[in-house]
Amino acid sequence: MTTFKEAQRIRSKNVARSRVPPKFKKAVSKGEQMLCSQLDLMEIKYEQEFRFNPDRRWKADFRIEGYQILVEVEGGAFCNGRHTRGQGYTDDCEKYSTAAAMGWTVIRGTTNQVKEGLVLKWIELAMERAKVA
Fold first, then answer.
1. Bridge partner residues of 46 (DSSP)
2. Which domain holds residue 33?
3. pTM higher than 0.90 for the full model?
4. Which CATH number belongs to the domain containing residue 78 in this structure?
5. Does residue 95 fall inside a structural domain?
6. Is residue 37 part of a domain?
7. More confident residue, 25 or 37
8. Which pLDDT band, with edges at 50, 70 and 90, does 32 fall under?
9. What is the DSSP track for the chain?
10. Per the structure, how many domains does the chain have?
11. Does some domain include residue 6?
């Protein structure tokens, strides 16, 4: 037999508890997943979501370890995504120009360019050029 207190607990509504919601990580795009696979296959070490400027919250999709190389995989290039609309494009110009002024080589490519292997080729060229300099 159920006691009154047990019945009351069962029927009572859940009380909303105040707590800070967890921060969710950015979903990794198909292009970023493909580039991870390509870099792993070529044994090129990298760091994802690299914060290259301590004064801003900007992050690059990839930083190639041991080199001043940042890689951005641009999504939404053909569907009016953030990177191709006015303010998003302007913000990206500021981010990439600041990175370049800080001495970073910034490689940008679309998902299709990652799929075709072009972005990997550009990374390898930049790595080779950095060795010569």
1. 64
2. 29-132
3. no
4. 3.40.960.10
5. yes
6. yes
7. 37
8. very high
9. ---HHHHHHHHSPPPP---PPPPPPPPPPHHHHHHHHHHHHTT--EEEEE---TTS---EEEEETTTTEEEEEE--TTTT-GGGSHHHHHHHHHHHHHHHHTT-EEEEEEHHHHHTTHHHHHHHHHHHHHHH-
10. 1
11. no
